[in-house]
Amino acid sequence: MFSSSAIVGLAAGSLRRVHHIALNVKDMQASRHFYGQILGLHELQGAEIPSTLKDLVATGQVANFMTPDGTVLDLFWEPELTPPDSDPKRQFTRANHLAFDIAPELFEQAVAVLKQHQIPLDHGPVSRPTGRGIYFYDPDGFLLEIRCDRLDQLDQP
Q1: φ, ψ of residue 86 in degrees (nearest 5)
Q2: CB atoms within 10 A of CB 84
Q3: Residue 145 CA from chain centroid, whole number
Q4: β-pairing verdict for 62-66 and 72-77
């Protein structure tokens, strides 16, 4: 047992980055298409797949994607997955949303892609002092965001 006075907490900077995010999905093919083809994330193949997940990937129970910053998104197939509420506007997990960053000059293209593929939108695009964002749902009703910094922020030191 640890004494509360002995361990204060990790020092700032001890946690280096988000290693991976794992989502449960009901329809693996729809989710693979959404994250790979619509959002353009790289699906890990062959030797890129973590050794601990190779068997699950081979049997179609897991798919792995990587963001450009190296964060891995693991999709776990749960065919019986049903959110507690069928209305996606009612949050059904403790997670609120997952946000992807995009270059400001590509933001309008991202909005157009979402609309072209008839991705269900929650709200937006919205403009804030920090930039712009659009909120939408993945095939399982999980809330996602694509956001960008303001263009004028990029020119400041």
Answers
A1: -75, -10
A2: 8
A3: 8
A4: antiparallel
As given in the structure block, the two tokens for residue 148 are: 């960008």
**Residue 136, strand partner residues:** 121, 144
Query: Measured between alpha carbons, how far is 9 from 27 in angstroms, rounded to an integer?
Result: 40
Q: What are phi and psi of 112, to 5 degrees?
A: -65, -40
Q: In what order do the strands lie in the sheet with 72-77?
A: 20-25, 72-77, 62-66, 42-43
> What is the DSSP secondary structure assignment for residue 34, as one 8-state letter?
I
pTM over 0.90: no
- List the chain pLDDT tens, one digit each, 157 residues: 445 566 778 788 877 888 899 999 999 999 999 999 999 999 999 999 988 899 999 999 999 999 999 999 999 999 887 766 667 676 666 677 899 999 999 999 999 999 999 999 999 999 988 899 999 999 988 889 999 998 876 555 4
CA distance 106 to 50: 31
Domains of the chain: 17-81 (3.10.180.10), 83-157 (3.10.180.10)
Element (H, E) at 107: helix 107-116
